[in-house]
Structures are given as C-alpha cells and as structure tokens.
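ZP: hey, is the adenosine-5'-diphosphate complex queued? I don't see it on the tracker
AM: it wasn't, my bad. submitting now with these inputs:
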Amino acid sequence: MSKVSIQNVGKVFERAASPVPALDNVNLSIEDNEFITLVGASGCGKSTLLRILAGLEYRTSGEVLCDGKSINSPGADRAMVFQHYSLYPWLSVIDNIKFSRQLQVNRENLTSSDVEAASGRADALLNLIGLGKVRNAFPNQLSGGMQQRVAIARSLMGRPSVLLMDEPFGALDSQTREVMHDLILHIHRVEKTTIVFVTHDVEEAVYLGQRVVLMQPRPGRIHSIFPVPLPAQRTQDMKYSTPFRELRAEILARIRESTGITTDLDMLDKLNVQSTAV
Ligand SMILES: Nc1ncnc2c1ncn2[C@@H]1O[C@H](COP(=O)(O)OP(=O)(O)O)[C@@H](O)[C@H]1O
Ligand SMILES: [Mg+2]
C-alpha cells in the first residue's frame, strides 16, 4: 500500500467574481520513505495540493489517503514546514522544539517518564540539526538558516510519518540552501520519514527528489513525473553531472512550454502586462 494516495483530486476556490480552478484531476501515489518533490511555475497549485495533504484545505473532489485513511483534517501523522519559520520569539531553541509536545503533555495528563522521553527526543533532534551549542539561545539571536533548522526539528518532534515542506528554503541565501539540502537528505535517511517537498526551483527539485512531479497551471495539474537517475546518496558535485544537467534542462523546457514563456523577454512582457493592468 502506498503511504499517500491522491486520487482524482480537484479543488475550486469559490470567489465572488469567478471560481478559480486550482487543481484538476490530480493522481499521485507516494511510497513509504520516498522523497518526492513538486515543482512548477507559480500558481500551478503546489501549495494547494500540499495544504490538502496537511488537512488545512478541503478538496472539492476526489480522495486523499494516508496509510489507507481518508485525510480530512490535520493530524500528528503529517507535519508541515513553511517558508517562514514561525518560531515563538519568547521561547529558547530547545523550548521551541518541545512546545507542541508540551501542549500534548498538558492536555493528556502524561506521566513524568513521558515528559522525560520527550526531552530526550528534543535533545536528539537538536543534535541531528547541529544546533546543540545554541540550545538556550532565542530565535532572534539565530540566522535564518538556523531558525529554519529549529522549525524542522520542531516539526519532527511528534515523529510524523509524512513531512510536508512548502518552499522551506525559499528565503535563504544560496550557500545556506546547499547546507540545508544536505541536512534534509540526512534527516530523511535517519528519521525515515516520507517527504513531500514543494519548490519552484528546478535544481533544488532534482537534487532532493527521488522523483520530481512537474505541475502545470490553469488549472493546476500534473504535467509529468520524472524519476531522478542519480545515486540515493547525493553529493553536491552531482549537480555538474550529465544526468543531472539533462534532467534539469528537460524540466525547465517543459515549464517554459506549459506556461508559454520561452525567453526572458516573454517573461518581461508578461510582467509589463500585469503591471499595466494594476
Ligand atoms: N485562498 C484562495 N482563494 C482563492 N484562490 C486561491 C486561494 N489560494 C490559492 N488560490 C489560487 O489557486 C491557484 C493555485 O495557487 P497555489 O496553490 O498557491 O499555487 P503555487 O503554490 O503553485 O504557486 C492560484 O491561481 C491561486 O491564485
Ligand atoms: Mg505556493
């Protein structure tokens, strides 16, 4: 059985003026422990699909199963990481990681050994993300990359079986992103979670994904699915290899084709039209 099964999913946003068909007939099976990346131009429904998987948004048609069960609300089996790491500024790094677990402890009247186990887990995650030294620092004392690492650790606290990430490294500089790429691959190996990772960056999608799902806009749907022909253990130098460059070029060409943008000048034209329309 697939970990996640997306069957004929459609989503229409009802708006006063005109309905927006955000997703149309999306079908995708994601295997246990797979690292899958969703890539595509802005507006092709990537975030909407991820939010449906998280249970934060309702689908208007179709079915989504996680471990065979229909997804209709958020659940501890699925954790989400956003681009903007919303850490609590008044809590230290370690308390941010423990926070949601602490809520659960308070709610469920757990015993002191449960609380200790949670503390052990938080420390293990802190070491996994390489931030043991800043355990007691506050978020505003950390760089953006470090804050995002804390947000990732926090999302892993409840041992989710599926980790959903929406452009999590989009706000980081390119060197920090490379470090984060190798870190998230390491986390994927150690924690054995299934990861669904949304990005508009084709290079990032190919470097991280075992399969890359290319989406296309208006309405948002799957264009094609590419298996990535690289060894499971990725290293940065693979970005210069022929299979990597060929797949990246292929996906970029398909994106340009499906959005009608073939050159940078077309892109400029589109932007001009949009700004005169405003
Ligand atoms: N809450 C909303 N209300 C109305 N339209 C929305 C809403 N969220 C997204 N959309 C529309 O749905 C489409 C897909 O959006 P989104 O999933 O955010 O795309 P992506 O993440 O690929 O950029 C876009 O046309 C967007 O404008
Ligand atoms: Mg988005």
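AM: back. The beta strands are 4-13, 20-30, 35-39, 61-66, 69-70, 78-81, 162-166, 194-199, 211-216, 221-227.
ZP: great, adding it to the tracker
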